[in-house]
Automatic annotation (TrEMBL):
Keywords of this entry: DNA-binding, Transcription, Transcription regulation
Entries under PROSITE patterns matching the protein: HTH_ASNC_2
Domain HTH asnC-type: 12-69
InterPro entries: AsnC-type_HTH_dom, Dimeric_a/b-barrel, Tscrpt_reg_AsnC-like, Tscrpt_reg_AsnC/Lrp_C, WH-like_DNA-bd_sf, WH_DNA-bd_sf
The protein's name in its UniProt record: Leucine-responsive regulatory protein
Gene Ontology, cellular component aspect: cytosol
Keyword Lyase appears in the UniProt entry: no
Keyword DNA-binding: yes
Pfam families, alphabetized: AsnC_trans_reg, HTH_24
GO BP: response to amino acid
Lineage of the species this protein comes from: Bacteria, Pseudomonadati, Pseudomonadota, Alphaproteobacteria, Caulobacterales
Amino acid sequence: MKTDKIELNQADRRLLFAIQRDASVSQADLAEKSGISASQVSRRLAQLKEDGVLKGIVGVLEPERAGLTCSAIIRVRLRDHAAANVKQFRDLVARMNEVTLCVMTTGETDYLMKIVARDLPHFQEIVQSKLLRCAAIAHMESSIVLEHLKDTTALPLDEA
């Protein structure tokens, strides 16, 4: 994936804004919303994907309706930042389908993770069988999510 910043024109921004809201709409609808022709929509989307701006077009699921009723935020501090510890932790995260977000942070916490589980016993099983067995982790602290006030994948692009 390319890492250089891509300059987006107004049509690109309107197109990306529209597909973030609902990517299942027709190309004609996307064309109308972005102010370009329907044939340009597919070319622009292909170019935005090639440029690395558009990672993919996916369906966004409602976790509870899909049987995943427990979410938790976990703060992780590694034993130290030796390459082997970092690799062990990153490899663990890559293998865990329950992790929906993991970011390296500044401050006392090295990583912040979001885990989604079927229920509280399933979350406990994940913690005990995976996270607590990782020798790279010195300390972890979890908070169960009680309510989602906002949970979006949409980036704050200007509509116009």
